[in-house]
Amino acid sequence: MKPLSQFSRAEARAIRAVLTDIDDTVTTEGTLTASAYAALEQLHRAGLLVIPVTGRPAGWCDHIARMWPVDAVVGENGAFYFRYDRQQKKMHQHFWASREERIRNRARLDLIEKEVLGTVPGTALASDQDYRVADLAIDFCEDVPALPESEVDRIVAVFERAGAQAKVSSIHVNGWFGDYNKLSMAKTLLADVFGIDWETAKKSVVFAGDSPNDEPMFAAFPLSVGVANVHAFAHRLTNKPAYITDGHSGEGFAELARMVLDARE
Ligand SMILES: [Mg+2]
């Protein structure tokens, strides 16, 4: 991970889209600061595509797509993207799985939920679970006292024994049935909606994140940036971001936005 100051001005000038995780990348200790939100808005106003790529639920993503200064949002770790067309006043929704498949998967996730809550003390259902359409989120750090890593591993193991995927964010273990992740849905969105193929994306898209559920993005995007708190998860990452900011969380994101905008002047 190289310091962000080593990001070349030429590469920064070529950036057309900023994809970013939300929790602990744009937000700071659970809140959205004015400076981080302003960074999103400044990027958007400068004509860059701004696309959060998050593990957060569909209910939140409806709000984000509609009200934040963004062009689209990928949610529930790649289960869908939402894009609000402000001219047409229409919310476009694209899901990886059909409604029927999601209902079938929910029944299987319900069994996993029972097993995790029954066998890993100190865990809880994430408080945003009711607004999710495709995944199961187990809280190990948001509204419950932080659990040690060995317990996080036990949660992941329950998902994996049931044949589900599981990814660890900075606050939740998210699990789902289906061969998708943040990266696959981000690629679908870039290609289908914005006409950015993968070869172009590698040079014109920067991704910012902080934790293991961002790893598919760190691995794929040559222009990937970790905010400073990614250090806390570095030992869980085989694929680390190419660059790292000085600032933590939202401050790190604002630092990245400034660099991208400065390069365009
Ligand atoms: Mg995060």
TrEMBL record:
Pfam families reported for this sequence: Hydrolase_3
Key words of the record: Hydrolase
Example GO molecular function: hydrolase activity
This protein's name: HAD-IIB family hydrolase
UniProt source species: Microvirga terricola
